[in-house]
Here is the input.
Amino acid sequence: MTASNSLGQSQPSLGLTVTTDEEAPEGPPLQLGANSVTSNGFTLSWSPPSTQLKNGIIQSYLVTIDSGRMLNRTVLPSTTINEYLVTGLRANTNYMAYVQAVNNQGTGPASPSVSVKTSELVPEEPPLNVACVSLSSQSLQITWQPPRPEFRNGLLRGYKIFYEPLNEFLLDKTAGSSQTTTELTVFLSGLEKFSNYSIQV
Here is the structure.
């Protein structure tokens, strides 16, 4: 700043540096991606918003994980490496994830979401309602129902039936056998006559 009169202008004053107030970010985090997918989680990574759209110093990030039935939000401090390990998820389940930048004035817009499906895991529940009917002195019919959908942890590809005769006196297992099928019924034939069998599906 200078002062002036009819004879001219003064020397300029010392300079001042002034910073305008912050506003909430106008831009979303960039390059959101997911990797290292397992049956119970995955890793999210992203870059900060564009410099001209930060409108202040990014203090933290708000990470949202949405399964359609469950919504989880986590606040993470801003670091030089923007990465988050998501854990505690269900196997073989679709999730949507997005991130928002936060400064002292508020939360910015959400990044484009990424879709992640966790990998399969062995079923958590056995087949249900297993039943056995004797068809003859040497054959049995075994029936069952599949595990409940929320405990299958993936696409069921078949069933394995274990069966073995039991020694009536020693209650000892001998000569075990197995059979696989994609159906909900199996017929066992060629069994020992008048014998007790242990059967598992």
Notes: The mean pLDDT is 87. The radius of gyration is 33 Å. Residues 3 and 10 are 5 Å apart (CA to CA). Residues 30-117 form a domain with the Immunoglobulin-like fold (CATH 2.60.40.10).
